[in-house]
């Protein structure tokens, strides 16, 4: 599976973060990964490891998003946009294997798929300030 596809699966998994108690998330992640049997074990481990690492840094990631989204409180962002931003900011701040431009471009593409053109521009603007 390509990194883009893995990132999309991570998005689908992370989208549920705000709908479940944090302490339930690991069990939710295991369930999601087991129900989707098209993942190889290596891919499951990759997605789970990155997702849990991102979750452990959520305060720092959300702070960075808030600092760079002038006039927008993080609580007012759509859940899909917020999830996409969180993944991209995580990649920009903590994943040296992914160039910032790639993280930003992938986030914009996810926004076009799961949100709308305005959201894609918004995501691009915020991430452009960060990365």
UniProtKB/TrEMBL annotation:
Signal peptide: none annotated. The keyword Ion transport does not apply. The keyword Transcription applies. InterPro entries: NusB-like_sf, NusB_fam, NusB_RsmB_TIM44. One of its GO terms (molecular function) is RNA binding. Keywords: RNA-binding, Transcription, Transcription antitermination, Transcription regulation. GO terms for cellular component: cytosol. Residues 5-130 form the NusB/RsmB/TIM44 domain. It comes from the Bacteria. One of its GO terms (biological process) is DNA-templated transcription termination. Involved in transcription antitermination. Required for transcription of ribosomal RNA (rRNA) genes. Binds specifically to the boxA antiterminator sequence of the ribosomal RNA (rrn) operons. Belongs to the NusB family. This is Transcription antitermination protein NusB.
